[in-house]
Specification:
Shape: elongated
Low-confidence stretches: none
Order of helices and strands: HHHEE
Helix content: 25-40%
Number of strands: 2
Structural class: alpha+beta
Strand content: 5-15%
């Protein structure tokens, strides 16, 4: 009794004489623009991103922050553009955002 593919199972693997062998990663990359789930990769990365507990500043650190903010206010005329990194509470994660003034 003849099994399925018995006629070709022992043939040597075809190697093209005109096209060089393409690595598997490059073959897979050909199809990446056709991702079925747009935004899925970004959602997975956001879910996997590690977050820490919210940190409450003590009185000393609040005073240091207040002093540094006062220095910024005092120098706004000489340096009108500043960058501030801050945390913004989202639905499930804390996010670092950059504010340019």
């Amino acid at each position: 009794m003849m099994e399925k593919y018995d006629d070709i199972i022992n043939l040597p693997h075809h190697v093209s004489a005109t096209h060089p062998h393409m690595p598997a990663i490059d073959r897979a990359a050909q199809f990446s623009p056709f991702a079925a789930l747009t935004g899925y990769d970004a959602a997975i990365k956001e879910t996997a991103r590690l977050t820490d507990e919210r940190v409450e500043l003590d009185k000393y650190m609040k005073d240091v922050l207040r002093d540094r903010l006062q220095i910024i206010v005092d120098q706004l005329k000489e340096h009108p553009e500043i960058a501030i990194t801050y945390f913004s509470q989202m639905k499930r994660k804390m996010v670092v955002a950059m504010l340019l003034l």
